[in-house]
Amino acid sequence: MPTDQSSTATAAALLGESPLRILVAWDPANDDTGGTEALEFAAWLGRSMPVTVRVASTLLRPWPASLNKSGKKYKKWRKNEAEACAKAVEKALTDVELPRSQWDPQFSTFADGQNEAQLLTDEAERFEADLILFGSNAAASKGRFLAGSTTDALMHSSPTALGLAPRAVKLSKKGVTRVNFAYIDDRADENSPGLLFAAELAAELEVPLRIITFSPTGLSDVTLSKPKGMSSELIDEWNEQSLGMLDLARDRVIEHRDFIEVETEVGSGRGWGNAVDSLKWKKGDLICMDSHPMGTLERVFVGSTANEFLRHVTVPVVIHPYRSA
User: Fold this and answer.
1) Does pTM surpass 0.90?
2) CA–CA separation, 134 and 316 (whole Å)
3) From its phi and psi, is residue 128 left (phi > 0), alpha (psi between -120 and 50) or beta?
4) For the domain with range 4-165, which CATH number is right: 2.10.220.10, 1.20.1250.20, 3.40.50.150, 3.40.50.620?
5) Which pLDDT score, from 0 to 100, does residue 222 have?
6) Nearest to 182 by CA among 109, 118, 272, 96
């Protein structure tokens, strides 16, 4: 079972005296990542806490790995690409109103290779990033999130926490105004390290914490003609268990940080879209989620249920790597 100390240590790594180190995955030439949502996400976080931002642009190399990278033509091409990216990044960071004081001295990097997920993982390690931010694939509906291939790969392997921004997301000018912790499946545990991290974050930012869970099949699916049927009994049992779990989670948070405002809610509806939309969302909302356990590996891993949930979120999400006790 995770301890308070491990969760507090995790939060301290992100909320310590040093600025939050944010790596933004952004490529102005790529339709999948060329939107500015990830950059806006970084600027939004910067309104609430100290941050240092670096933007990483990557290119999937179409030529063989055996190409002579020491050749003059390659070096010239790479230099030109890096300069073009830096120019575009400088303009984009200015456009999203991220103060220069929050830019890393090396605010733009460019890398090419045959595995973009690995290129970003390597850059995050060099930068000692606390968080890697991604925007949505351009094919997503406005206000929804759809992972591109590189994002999807890291959602199943990243040792660094990930931040995901829906397409054309609308963000509060005041920064983060409420932290949400989402229980997505039946692994709900009031001792979840992610829950205690969310409590630490809410306490640090002096904002409320909302603990939420969902019924994607919907309590309203019970037929009026058979209110006492098997379906009704199962839903009643689920509802009772969910409310009980939320009460335990709330008590655990108050025990951990008794001075923050905590509320709990259940989102219900026919399918994930209606369940998520049944809750009221604000422009200042941030969702925190745990990763699915994968042995002892400290990695982000998004299971199928969480992946379906993410397709319907309308606010930014932070997913933490799974960490065993």
Assistant:
1) no
2) 10
3) left
4) 3.40.50.620
5) 43
6) 272
Tokens of 146: 């759809």
Residue type (1 letter), 277:
D
Query: CA-CA distance, 222 to 234, in Å (whole number)?
Result: 10
In angstroms, the CA 285 to CA 298 distance is 26
The per-residue pLDDT for range 278-317, each reduced to its tens digit, is 999 999 999 999 887 766 677 898 888 899 999 999 999 9
> DSSP letter string over 88-139?
HHHHHHHHTT--GGGEEEEEEEEEEES-HHHHHHHHHHHHT-SEEEEE--TT
Q: Is 289 helix (H, G, I), strand (E, B) or coil?
A: strand
Other Cβ atoms less than 10 A from the Cβ of 72: the count is: 8
* Range 178-319 has CATH code 3.30.300.70: no
- Identify which of 145, 206, 140, 177 has the alpha carbon closest to the alpha carbon of residue 44: 177
Domains of the chain, residue spans: 4-165, 178-319
